[in-house]
Specification:
about 230 residues, mainly alpha, 2 domains, two-stranded antiparallel sheet, 8 helices
Length: about 230
């Protein structure tokens, strides 16, 4: 019975993942007939289009995101099989939810790319950066729940070597990413494009550097909390 329930849940997750991956393609097909012969394919720091391609390139973004999303979904959904250390404490259910969250995020990025390409008056940065910031906040919620693994989280020599270091680093990182992600979303929405971009990536550096430094200092203290 337990095995049947697990198989049913896995099937449901696969179906949801496929629908999430397919949705941007359906949207791209819907807007395709109304597109001009040339559409923007790349945007600069100001959110302005600086490269163009044929209307068929509307499917390029969803294609790339679909490949990445499918890879991440398979990897995280089967993390115990792929992870060389086979962490028994890893929660399969949590990683499968994390996998779906990641696929949903990548599909959202595809929608934003398609919408921006088909609506030239829209500045992509005002949509893309807030979405990424909110995704970072969501990742922050997951971080304290992640057990040691080689694929998700702060995979530093010191966190992979010591479980306490991993746990404390991800507790701190979770808080920083939750509030940092929200700050990124707000800054990208309210500030001018260039300034919002600079603030966004400055916060990103903080979100990466602070937990990494914390982890190293804890390692130097013998993996004890000060």
């Amino acid at each position: 019975m337990v095995q049947f329930i697990l198989m049913k849940d896995s099937t449901k997750n696969i179906v949801v993942a496929i629908l999430l991956i397919a949705a941007p393609f359906a949207y791209a097909a819907y807007v395709y007939p109304s597109l001009p012969d040339t559409i923007p394919t790349h945007f600069n720091i100001k959110g302005e289009a600086d490269a163009y391609g044929g209307k068929d390139s509307i499917f390029l973004g969803p294609g790339i995101m679909a490949v990445v999303g499918l890879f991440v979904f398979v990897l995280l959904s089967n993390i115990k099989s792929f992870d060389p250390k086979r962490y028994k404490a890893a929660d399969d259910g949590l990683y499968k939810k994390f996998a779906l969250f990641t696929v949903a995020f990548l599909s959202l990025i595809s929608f934003i790319i398609i919408f921006s390409a088909s609506n030239h008056s829209i500045t992509i940065g005002k949509l893309l950066l807030p979405a990424v910031g909110l995704a970072f906040a969501g990742f922050g919620w997951y971080m304290p729940k992640l057990h040691q693994n080689y694929f998700a989280g702060f995979k530093l020599p010191w966190t992979l070597e010591n479980e306490d270091n991993w746990n404390e680093t991800h507790k701190l990182a979770g808080k920083i990413w939750k509030y940092g992600g929200l700050a990124q979303a707000i800054a990208a929405l309210l500030l001018p494009n260039r300034v919002g971009f600079i603030v966004f990536f400055s916060i990103t550096l903080i979100m990466v550097i602070v937990p990494s430094v914390f982890s190293y200092r804890m390692f130097k203290r013998g993996n004890t909390i000060a």
